[in-house]
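Continuing the batch. This is chain 6 of the set; chains 1 through 5 are on the previous pages. Same settings as before, nothing changed between runs. Recording input and output for traceability.
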Amino acid sequence: MKQSAGLLVFRERQRRLEVLLAHPGGPYWAKKDAGAWTIPKGEIIEGEDPLAAARREFEEETGLPPPGGEAMALTPRRQAGGKLVHAWAMRGDLDAGAIRSVTFSMEWPPRSARQQAFPEIDRAAWFPLDEARRRILKSQTPFLDELERRLTLGGAGPGC
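Output for chain 6:
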């Protein structure tokens, strides 16, 4: 079974919780927006610690180091394709416009025999939770719900 790991970075702005989401790069995602965004994540290498994989993938996908500080483990979620995603929430703040993703190559257009390079993520942005719920992949929405619930119950919610 394939497994991925990623970081759900959050911050508070004007007493509202915001999360950093990434938009997948490549031609298949180019015209998709609502329901297409994701947490920065990637595949766990066999034998790799999942949190270490999440930190590595965050840096590969964003070109920025992951935030320091405590990583709050979230409940792993299975995506529609069957992949299990492990996620950690981390408080941090970074310039979403400064993101520079690694690239992947694929034949494009199909059956053209031409290889083209595309960024793994083509952009990232901060979203308040209500907007993030509209943008994120449906299978990852529970990460947002759990983050909100845990911050509210833990007394570390917006403005704290």
